[in-house]
TrEMBL record, chain A:
Family annotation (PANTHER family): RIBONUCLEASE P PROTEIN SUBUNIT P21, RIBONUCLEASE P SUBUNIT P21
Gene name of the encoded protein: Rpp21
Classification via Pfam families: Rpr2
Bias type Polar residues, positions: 97-109
Domain of life (superkingdom): Eukaryota
Biased segments, Basic residues type: 116-132
Disordered as annotated region, ranges: 79-148
Position of the signal peptide: none
Keywords assigned by UniProt, alphabetized: Metal-binding, tRNA processing, Zinc
Similarity field: Belongs to the eukaryotic/archaeal RNase P protein component 4 family.
Protein name according to UniProt: Uncharacterized protein Rpp21
TrEMBL record, chain B:
Name under which the protein is recorded: Ribonuclease P protein subunit p29
GO molecular function: ribonuclease P RNA binding
Localization of this protein: Nucleus, Nucleolus
GO biological process: rRNA processing; tRNA 5'-leader removal
Function: Component of ribonuclease P, a ribonucleoprotein complex that generates mature tRNA molecules by cleaving their 5'-ends.
GO cellular component: nucleolus; ribonuclease MRP complex; ribonuclease P complex
Family affiliation: Belongs to the eukaryotic/archaeal RNase P protein component 1 family.
Keywords from the UniProt entry: Nucleus, tRNA processing
Pfam family, one: RNase_P-MRP_p29
Length: 196, 206
């Protein structure tokens, strides 16, 4: 038994060292702008992991793109960007414009047809809204008490496959600077003060 | 809307017997339009959901991830990869300063040779020592890509060459050691190589 265990451990060590090498290689290639090779090594690293039934650390796993396993490094590969608008008001605006566009030609002819059309238009956006809300709910749960605060989403866009890795901003978290418990000490550099 | 309604009225009145057409009176409240576009929308939604999570093999190939450009990579760009690989080999084969490679009669020899087969070749400097195809002989370069049947070597003249594994014997240098790899037995997918069981005795083909 012990010998078997030892052998297993040894094999696992070798697999992990290989995965480590591949991961580093993919980062190296991404840093030298060889996106294809980087994605290839990332993919291989993942595949080795799945074949040998070994898990990557989740933080490392997430640093690879979900779709093409290109390592996403903000500032090198991609940029951390803020999603332009909240998806919920956008959908609302769309429906408004759509209904307006419908109304202007039909306004002269008040009738049942128009009403039914309107209804259909209303139904679809409602569904959309519901979906969007569902998606956002899990991270927004602590935020529900103060619904006025908009949830901005940060995202990294993969340059190869346009896949997105999004982050939610939640200023109720402890690490947020505005939260009083996150500040332990305020230091000011002497050079800055002299400059002022 | 006017236009559509008049079209409808025309259509309906045309259906009536000619001498009754004058007395046709259409109440607009009784008209309901049906638009059959629901199925398509459901279809598109499903597709979109699928698209966001993973790439299919087709999409993967469409992005050009299975192929590499032959003349765009410089040899110098692959050198850092080679340096990284050197460190990896040292870790993988447990090489130390002053250590000795086990001989054939050594009990460690079996283990060592198995590890050698499982070695990852990305970034290794390889040289084709023998081949059934004479033009492939003496090609050398840094291995950049490793697939089931083929190695892609980046030569010093900045060209990427595709070398079939099964016809060649490769020479591999690690420090002051030289290994000979029979490509025939390398014909495994690189991801599966680290898991696959390896026979103790295999015959060289040449």
């Amino acid at each position: 038994m012990t010998k078997d265990k030892k052998r297993k451990l040894l094999a696992q060590r070798h697999v992990s060292s290989r995965m480590n090498f591949l991961f580093q290689a993919s980062h190296l290639m991404a840093a030298s702008h060889q996106a294809k090779l980087a994605a290839y090594y990332g993919k291989l690293c993942r595949n080795v992991g799945t074949k040998a039934v070994m898990h990557m650390a989740p933080a490392l796993k997430r640093s690879l793109c979900r779709r093409c396993s290109l390592p996403l490094m903000p500032g090198v590969n991609t940029e951390l960007r803020v999603a332009e608008e909240n998806p919920t008001p956008q959908a609302g605006e769309e429906t408004r414009t759509a209904s307006n566009g419908e109304e202007t030609p039909t306004a002269s002819n008040g009738g049942e047809v128009e009403k039914t059309k309107k209804k259909r238009h209303r139904r679809l956006p409602k569904n959309r809204k519901k979906k969007v809300e569902k998606k956002e709910e899990p991270p927004a749960n602590p935020n529900e008490s103060q619904p006025e605060i908009p949830l901005n989403a940060l995202f990294l866009e993969c340059s190869l496959c346009q896949g997105r890795r999004s982050f939610t901003l939640d200023n109720q978290r402890e690490c947020w600077l505005e939260q009083p418990q996150s500040l332990v000490q305020v230091l000011s550099l002497p050079g800055e003060n002299a400059g002022q | 809307m006017d236009h559509a309604m008049s079209d409808l009225k025309e259509f309906i009145t045309d259906l009536v017997v000619p001498h009754h057409r004058r007395s046709v009176n259409i109440n607009q409240d009784h008209i309901t339009m049906l638009e059959g576009s629901k199925i398509k929308k459901q279809h598109s939604r499903k597709r979109r959901a699928h698209k966001s999570t993973t790439l299919s093999r087709k999409e993967y190939a469409k992005l050009g991830l299975n192929t590499l450009p032959t003349k765009q990579m410089k040899y110098e760009e692959a050198l850092p990869l080679h340096n990284l690989w050197k460190g990896y080999v040292r870790e993988h084969l447990a090489l130390r300063e002053g250590g000795e490679v086990p001989e054939v009669h050594d009990p460690r020899y079996d283990e060592f040779s198995k590890q050698l087969v499982k070695l990852d070749l990305h970034g290794a400097k390889l040289r084709v020592t023998q081949s059934k195809c004479s033009t492939l002989e003496n090609l050398s370069g840094i291995c950049v890509m490793d697939t089931k049947n083929v190695l892609k070597l980046l030569g010093k003249d900045h060209r990427l060459r595709t070398v079939p594994k099964s016809e060649c014997v490769f020479g591999l240098k690690v420090g002051n050691m030289e290994f000979t790899i029979f490509g025939q037995h390398l014909n495994i997918r690189p991801a599966e190589r680290s898991v696959k069981k390896i026979k103790n005795f295999v015959e060289p083909f040449m």
